[in-house]
């Protein structure tokens, strides 16, 4: 899809936001890291609060083969710090299917702030 869009004659700002829509329940786990023993890495149930959520953003490093080719990228990679912060990290949203309208409304409110 990105290759097709980049082949258009017009120059325009483009932002794609990957999402996964699921029927699974989503939860947030809240705990204080000082209550996690380094020897086991296990959080005791007395120190754990689990809350249902409608959607979340997950940061990950996608395979570099999925990146746009350099001729399509307007910014250059200038440092390891920038590479890790801006190029290597991708965010994908995971959304409960019955709350997709809520997510899209939220995204519509925050999207203008993405570019300035």
Average pLDDT metric: 79
Briefly note the structural class of the backbone. Answer: alpha+beta
Oligomer: single chain
Spans where pLDDT lies below 50 across 5 or more residues: none
Number of domains: 1
Main β-sheet, in a few words?
Answer: 3 strands, mixed
Helix content: 10-25%
Strand arrangement within the widest β-sheet reads: 1-5-4
Q: Using DSSP, what is the number of strands?
A: 5
What is the CA–CA distance across the termini?
A: 25 Å
Count of helical stretches: 3
Model description:
By secondary structure, this protein is of the alpha+beta class. The chain has one domain. It is built from three helices and five strands. A three-stranded mixed β-sheet has the order 1-5-4, with no helix packed on it. The radius of gyration is 19 Å and the shape is extended. The model has no long low-confidence stretch (mean pLDDT 79).
SSE order and pairing:
Blueprint: H1 2-6, E1 19-22, E2 26-30, E3 49-53, E4 55-60, H2 80-87, E5 90-96, H3 100-114
Parallel strand pairs: 1-5
Antiparallel strand pairs: 2-3, 4-5
Q: What key phrases describe this protein's structure?
A:
116 residues, alpha+beta, 3-stranded mixed beta sheet, 5 strands, 24% helix
Give me a quick take on this structure:
This protein has 116 residues and is α+β, with helices and mostly antiparallel strands. It contains three helices and five strands; from the N terminus they run H-E-E-E-E-H-E-H.
């Amino acid at each position: 899809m990105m290759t097709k869009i980049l082949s258009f004659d017009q120059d325009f700002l483009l932002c794609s936001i990957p999402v996964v829509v699921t029927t699974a329940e989503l939860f947030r786990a809240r705990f204080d890291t000082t209550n996690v023993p380094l020897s086991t890495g296990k959080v005791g149930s007395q120190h754990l609060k689990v809350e249902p959520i409608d959607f979340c953003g997950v940061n990950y490093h996608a395979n570099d083969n999925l990146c746009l080719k350099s001729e399509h990228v307007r910014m250059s990679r200038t440092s390891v710090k920038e590479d890790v912060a801006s190029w290597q990290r991708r965010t994908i949203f995971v959304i409960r299917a019955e709350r997709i309208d809520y997510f899209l409304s939220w995204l519509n409110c925050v999207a203008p702030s993405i570019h300035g």
